[in-house]
Specification:
Elements (H helix, E strand, L loop, with lengths): L1 H20 L1 H14 L2 H23 L6 H47 L1 H4 L2 H13 L3 H26 L3 H31 L1 H12 L4 H10 L2 H53 L5 H39 L1 H4 L19 E8 L9 E8 L4 E6 L5 H8 L7 E6 L2 E2 L5 H6 L1 E4 L11 H6 L9 H10 L3 H4 L22 H15 L3 E5 L7 H14 L4 E5 L3 H4 L4 E6 L2 E6 L1 H7 L2 H11 L3
Helix pairs in contact: 1-2, 1-7, 1-12, 2-4, 2-7, 3-4, 3-12, 6-12, 7-8, 7-12, 8-11, 8-12, 9-11, 11-12, 17-19, 22-23
Length: about 600
C-alpha cells in the first residue's frame, strides 16, 4: 500500500509538471490514447456482426448487397480510429521532443534559486543526482502512465462484456490480479530501496570512474599509476549491486511463472463456458467470435496490466525520490528593498557577525566587527582556514550569518533584493569559472551580460587584465573557442585563463569589487601590471582583495589580518610592519624566500 500511495503521489506530480510545460499536448495524448483503447473491442464487435450477416446471407437471404452498409460502416470507424492514432503519435512525438529541454530548465532554475548554501547539502545533492539520472525517462513514465490509464479503461470495458456470460471468470481474474499486484509490489519496493539507499555509494563509484575520462584529472592519475584503485572502486560497487538486483529479479520471476499458469487455467475455463453457450444455441456464431476475442484480449490485457503496473510503480518509486527535490527544498527568501546605484559605493558594516557551516562544529567567523568605507581599498590576509573566503561569501550573501548583521548603506543584507545586490558586486573567486564552450569575447561578456555588446569595452578589459597580447595570437582572436573539445578550439594555460577571468572582472565594473586570490597562476610582472590597473581604473570603487602574496596587498588602504574568524591586526602595510605582529612575521618569511 505504501508503494501504491507513492505511485499515486508521483503520478500526480508528473501530470502536474507536464501540465505546466505542455498542457494541450499532455491532455491530447491522454484523451486520444483512451479512445484507442476501445479499438479492439469495437473491431471485435463489428467482426461478430459481419460474421452473423455473412451466415444470414448464406442460409437465408442470399442478398450479397446487404453486406455493403456494414463494410462501409466498418471502414469509416477504422478510418476515424486510424486518424486518431496518427494524431496520438504526433502529440506523443512532439511532447517527447520539447519536454527534455523544459525539464532541464525547470531543474536548473529551481537549483539556482535555492542558493549555494542549500546546494552544498549532501541530501539535496543526492536527490539532484537522482533527478539527473531519471529526468530523461520522465517522458517515458508519462507515456507509460497514459498507456496504463487507457489499458485500465479498456480492460474494464472487456470485463463488463465478459461478465455477461462468465461472471466467475471476471471475479477470479480480479482476485488473482490483486494477489499478483501485492506480490509484485513487494519486490518493487526491495528494488527501489536498493537504488535509493545506496545513492551516495553509487555517486562515489561513478565519480571514481568519471575521473578516468576527465583530461584535467587523468594526467595525474596516469602518471601515478593509480587508475586501478578508481576502476576497482567502480567495479566493486556495480558488481555487488548488479548481483543483488539479479537475485531479487530471480525470486520475482518464479512468482510470475505461478501467476502465468493460473491465468492460463482461467482462460481455458472461460473458453469452455463460451463454447457451451454456443453449442446450446444461447449465442450466435458472430457473438461467439466477439466474446472469444474479448476473452483472449481481456486475459492478455489483464496480464499486461499487472506487468505494466509493476513496471510503472517500479519506475515511479525511482522518480518519487527525485521529485521530492521540488517539495522538500524551497528557494531562499529574497529581500524586498532596492539598493540604488549611486556614484559612491555603499558603506559596508559588519556587527558581531558569527557563522558556522551547516553540520560544522566550530564557528568559522566569530563576533566579527568591521566597517568598510565607500571607495576604500581593503586587503584581507591570513592562514588557510582563517575565514577569508567565508567572509567574502557572507558579504555576497552566498551564506547568511547565524548571528550579527551585515548592512550596506544601513540596509540589512538579508532585506536587499538579490538583483539589486548583485548589480553592486563584481566578484572573482579563486576557483573562477572557465567557459570552454564560449569564445574569448563571450567569456568576458559573462561579467556583465547586456543586449548590446561593445567590442571596444571588451578589448579595454582585456588590456587592463594584460590579456589582449596573447588573445591576438589566437587563430580567431576574440572569436576563439577556448576548449579543444570543440572544433577549432584551443586550450589556454592556467595563467591565461586567470587573465581572461580578470578581464571579465574589469568588464563588469561594479561599485564593489572583490577578488579572492586573483593572481595565483600569474607571473609577478603581470601581477604588478594588473594591480596597477586595478588601482588606476577602479578609483572611487570599493576594492576587497584576498591574497597570500604581500606584493599584492601592500598598496591597500587597509590590511586586515584574520585568524580563526577574528580580525587580530589591521592597518597599512607600514603600520603592520611596525607593529611587528603576525603580519610582519609572515611578510619577513615571504621576503626571505626571494633573497
Amino acid at each position: 500500500m505504501k508503494s501504491f500511495k507513492q505511485f499515486i503521489h508521483t503520478t500526480r506530480d508528473i501530470f502536474k509538471i507536464y501540465w505546466e510545460i505542455a498542457p494541450f499536448l499532455t491532455v491530447a495524448s491522454l484523451v486520444t490514447q483512451i479512445i484507442l483503447s476501445f479499438q479492439g473491442l469495437i473491431n471485435a464487435y463489428l467482426f461478430g456482426v459481419f460474421i452473423d450477416k455473412i451466415l444470414q446471407i448464406i442460409t437465408v437471404t442470399k442478398d450479397l448487397d446487404s453486406i455493403i452498409p456494414i463494410i462501409i460502416y466498418f471502414g469509416c470507424v477504422n478510418l476515424i480510429l486510424a486518424f486518431i492514432e496518427v494524431t496520438n503519435n504526433y502529440f506523443t512525438a512532439v511532447l517527447s521532443t520539447i519536454d527534455g529541454p523544459k525539464l532541464k530548465l525547470k531543474h536548473t532554475d529551481f537549483l539556482s534559486n535555492l542558493g549555494i548554501s542549500n546546494l552544498e547539502n549532501p541530501e539535496l545533492t543526492n536527490k539532484s543526482t537522482r533527478f539527473n539520472e531519471v529526468f530523461g525517462s520522465m517522458n517515458q513514465q508519462l507515456g507509460s502512465l497514459i498507456m496504463l490509464i487507457a489499458i485500465i479503461v479498456g480492460t474494464i470495458a472487456y470485463g463488463i462484456t465478459i461478465y455477461s456470460f462468465a461472471s466467475i471468470i471476471v471475479i477470479l481474474s480480479a482476485i488473482f490480479f490483486v494477489l499478483k499486484y501485492f506480490n509484485n509490489g513487494r519486490y518493487i519496493n526491495k528494488i527501489w530501496r536498493l537504488n535509493r539507499d545506496y545513492t551516495e555509494e553509487q555517486r562515489n563509484a561513478w565519480s571514481s570512474i568519471n575521473q578516468l575520462t576527465e583530461p584535467s584529472s587523468l594526467k595525474e592519475i596516469l602518471l601515478s599509476g593509480s587508475e586501478t584503485l578508481l576502476r576497482d572502486k567502480f567495479v566493486s560497487f556495480t558488481s555487488w549491486k548488479n548481483n543483488t538486483y539479479k537475485t531479487l529479479r530471480t525470486k520475482w520471476m518464479f512468482w510470475e511463472v505461478f501467476h502465468t499458469i493460473s491465468d492460463t487455467i482461467l482462460l481455458g475455463v472461460g473458453v469452455y463456458l463460451l463454447a457451451e453457450k454456443t453449442i446450446i444455441g444461447a449465442v450466435s456464431i458472430g457473438t461467439f467470435t466477439f466474446y472469444l476475442r474479448s476473452l483472449f484480449t481481456f486475459s492478455d490485457q489483464l496480464d499486461g496490466l499487472s506487468y505494466r503496473i509493476s513496471r510503472v510503480i517500479e519506475s515511479s518509486m525511482r522518480l518519487s525520490d527525485a521529485l521530492e527535490l521540488f517539495e522538500l527544498y524551497k528557494p531562499e527568501k529574497d529581500g524586498t528593498k532596492e539598493l540604488e546605484i549611486s556614484k559612491t559605493p555603499p558603506e559596508i558594516q559588519l556587527e558581531n557577525v558569527s557563522f558556522r557551516y551547516p553540520n560544522g562544529k566550530y564557528s568559522v567567523i566569530k563576533d566579527l566587527n568591521l566597517t568598510i568605507q565607500p571607495g576604500e581599498r581593503i586587503a584581507i590576509v591570513g592562514e588557510n582556514g582563517a575565514g577569508k573566503t567565508t567572509l567574502v561569501k557572507l558579504l555576497t550573501r552566498i551564506y547568511r550569518p547565524q548571528s550579527g548583521s551585515i548592512t550596506l548603506e544601513q540596509l540589512n543584507l538579508a532585506d536587499i533584493t538579490k538583483e539589486s545586490l548583485h548589480k553592486h558586486l563584481g566578484v572573482l573567486f579563486q576557483d573562477f569559472n572557465q567557459y570552454g564552450n564560449l569564445t574569448v569575447s563571450e567569456n568576458v561578456q559573462m561579467g556583465k551580460v547586456t543586449k548590446k555588446v561593445d567590442p571596444e569595452k571588451i578589448k579595454g578589459a582585456l588590456v587592463k587584465a594584460d590579456a589582449l597580447s596573447f588573445v591576438k595570437k589566437y587563430p580567431k582572436e576574440l572569436d576563439q573557442i577556448l576548449s579543444e573539445r570543440f572544433k577549432g578550439g584551443i586550450r589556454p594555460s592556467g595563467g591565461q585563463w586567470q587573465k581572461i577571468a580578470i578581464a571579465r572582472f574589469f568588464y563588469r565594473n561594479a561599485p564593489i569589487l572583490i577578488m579572492d586570490e586573483p593572481t595565483a597562476s600569474i607571473d609577478a610582472v603581470s601581477e604588478a601590471q594588473i594591480f596597477d590597473n586595478i588601482y588606476k581604473f577602479m578609483k572611487g570603487k570599493t576594492v576587497i582583495i584576498i591574497s597570500h602574496r604581500f606584493s599584492t596587498v601592500r598598496n591597500a588602504d587597509r590590511i586586515l589580518v584574520l585568524d580563526r574568524g577574528r580580525i587580530i591586526e589591521e592597518g597599512t602595510h607600514q603600520e603592520l610592519l611596525q607593529l611587528d605582529g603576525k603580519y610582519a612575521h609572515a611578510f619577513k618569511l615571504q621576503a626571505k624566500g626571494y633573497e
